[in-house]
Amino acid sequence: MKIVTYNVNGIKARLPRLLEYLAEQQPDIVCLQELKSSDETFPIQEVREAGYGACWHGQKGFNGVAVLARGSDPFERQRGLEGEPEDEHSRYLECEINGLTVASIYLPNGNPQPGPKFDYKLRWIDRLSRRARELFAAEVPAILAGDYNVIPNDDDTFSVRAMASDALMQPESRAGYRALLAQGWTDALRVRNPGGGVWTFWDYQAGAWQRDAGFRIDHLLLSPAVADRLSDAGVDKEYRGREKASDHVPTWVRLR
Q: Which positions are catalytic residues (predicted)?
């Protein structure tokens, strides 16, 4: 079973790339982020024609998350996180597929920092941590997959100096991510690549892709029952080099 997280950076703009990926790789479950599409304009017909059922939580112009399942319809468990009723951002969608709970996560960027956007990011991490703790306590097989907008370690970026003032690498952001892991979740890509140096994102600016100036911000966190079935984890890097590609690449785990 191959489970993927993929920030598409606009599902309508990247739809040819997404459908291409589904056809070529045939992943079993795909968590999408940054749809930049309202619920009404989500391309469900094209997704179904590709052989996938879907749940989605859209927002016009920005944010938006979805969960796709090959050959079946995901059952929606929860959209959004509790703790901030006025928060209308579409950033969290939790579904169940054949007994596996999967959450698609688009954590706030937080720039510029310091400031209200960074404060919102840290509050959002705390809210995610509370939901993660509930799932962990329930002992359900679960995967928290998405664009976390956190560079966890120094060896998860091409340049510590270049990213030093960015919200993605602040001590508070990293502490929030470590608090999730401390609950008992497994960072699958890190386990398979303990030396770092694996990127999931390359900016469109300054020839970042050509220079391989990337960093790792897309993560799949596994509950113990899922971590026991982990056989591999990686990135489908070559998709970043295709025409009109997203600035993220599909990041995946393979389970026994």
A: 106, 147 (proton donor/acceptor), 248 (proton acceptor)
Q: Does the reported pTM lie above 0.90?
A: yes
Instruction: List the binding residues.
Output: 7, 34, 147, 149, 247-248
Q: What domains does the chain contain, in order, with CATH numbers?
A: 2-255 (3.60.10.10)
Which one of 6, 57, 147, 236 is the catalytic residue?
147
The yes-or-no answer on residue 89 being catalytic is no
Residue 164: which residues within 8 A CB-CB, separation 6 or more? none
Active-site position among 21, 52, 92, 106 = 106
Structure confidence by residue, pLDDT tens digits, 22-39? 999 999 999 999 999 999
Residues in binding site for Mg(2+): 7, 34, 147, 149, 247-248
Sheet of strand 218-222, all strands in order from the earlier edge strand to the far edge: 75-79, 92-97, 100-106, 142-147, 218-222, 186-187
Encode pLDDT of 84-133 as tens digits: 999 999 999 999 999 999 999 999 999 999 999 999 999 999 999 999 99
Helix ranges (DSSP H) in 139-235? 160-163, 171-182, 188-192, 208-211, 224-227
